[in-house]
Amino acid sequence: MAREHSLFGRLVLRVTIILTIGAALLITAAWYYGRSAASQTYDRLLLGAALQMAGSLSIEDGKLNASLPVSAFELLGFSQEDRIFYRLIDTEGQTLTGYRDLAGYIDYTAARTGPVFLNDVYRDTPVRLVVVSRVLSDPPLSGWAYVLVAQTTEARNALTQEITSRAILLVILMSFLALIAGILAIRYSLQPVAALGSALHKRDPQDLTPLDLDIPTEMKPFIGSINHFMNRLDQRVMLLQRFIADAAHQIRTPLTALAAQADMLETETLPANAQHSLQRMRVRITELSRLTGQLLNHAMVIHRAGTVHLEKTDLVIVARQAFRMAVPVTVNPDIVVSFEAAQKQVPVAGDIVSLREAIANIIDNALRHGSKAELAVRVSAENNRALVEVSDDGEGIPPEKWPHVVERFMTSKPHEGNSGLGFAIASEVATAHSGLIRFREKTAHSNFCVILDIPLGQDT
After folding, report:
1. Which of 49, 115, 214, 349 could covalently link to 72 via disulfide, CB atoms 3.0 to 4.6 Å apart?
2. Half-sphere exposure (Cβ direction) of 370: Cα atoms closer than 13 Å
3. How many angstroms separate the CA atoms of 269 and 76, rounded?
4. For residue 184, what are the contacts with CB-CB under 8 A and spacing of at least 6?
5. Residue (of 139, 18, 144) closest to 91 by Cα position
6. Per-residue model confidence as pLDDT tens digits over 246-276
7. 283 C-beta neighbours (distance < 10 Å), count
8. What are φ and ψ of residue 401, in 5° steps?
């Protein structure tokens, strides 16, 4: 089976994908921003400590001395998890104080134009290093001195993680709220589609006039296509109705004339074999006329099943009309026919013409192929179901054939000239009324029975 695709689900999926991609980009940007903010913050502290150390250099008695200020270490001491390494280099390139192996490979001269920051690994630990310079112009001692200060990266990494985690939480929360708002907006935006479906569902099957709804501009081509289709369907229905009427007239008229011509023949003056052929021709004309009528009635029933609006009606009256229509005046006087209504009224929601045709076909089938001396029609209501029971004293239909006799052109007695449309017409009418055709087997105490079973008292 083909999967059903929901427009609402597809839109929600696409919005979710877009929000997910946007959230991923925002989280990535937040990580870069957090790392940059943490790096800038701690770089400024690192630079401040290095400048204080560089400012503490002084020349006394022709020698370079360094009196490291406590404030420089306090400035870097805000991060208790980090370790601090430093190195002061005099004008001769010798280590004045500090860790002598700290960044011994770098080119200090690059710091003459400004502070130099770089990432390094010292004693198997990642560190952030800053190099600052100070020019000395005292006559006994002149040249460039350098200060190197390194700090481990635990604190700045922790700050980066904290900023990123808060940003991620905020992005997830905003994305979730945006998704909820998007779902509500999509649901609200699709209301015109639901309104269109409701209007089409509530529309009378016979109403093929153009739709006139207040809809968004994007749906107007869709409404235009529906109106164009209904206009074409209306024309087709009119052509079909005209064809059925013309076919009924054009086919029945020559058949009636042919039957009249056959009846006018003098059977006494014909030889025996000609009389036998004439009798067979009359039988075939009768069968053809009946088959033609059933075919036209079947087409009519199919057409009305999808177009006629069901109306509240009394099934007793409809069944009585069908009984009078199906039982001819010239019925065999040896057959006892009866009509019984268990209730005065049996209200149903149905198409009077179709129901009358279905009941008449069941009665006609019983008269032609079942009844020997008795035919009974009974209308009743039981357990919210309306029942029309047609019973006869014939042999009945074997239970194994019940599922098949309601199909078109399927008959239990093909040798008797049965067209196989009677029960098919009745079954399609019952289905159109949310019902079915049932059978009750013949027993020693009851006759074979065909039952038209439809809901009782439904709203129109």
Report:
1. 49
2. 27
3. 138
4. none
5. 144
6. 666 666 677 677 777 776 666 666 677 776 7
7. 11
8. -100, -5
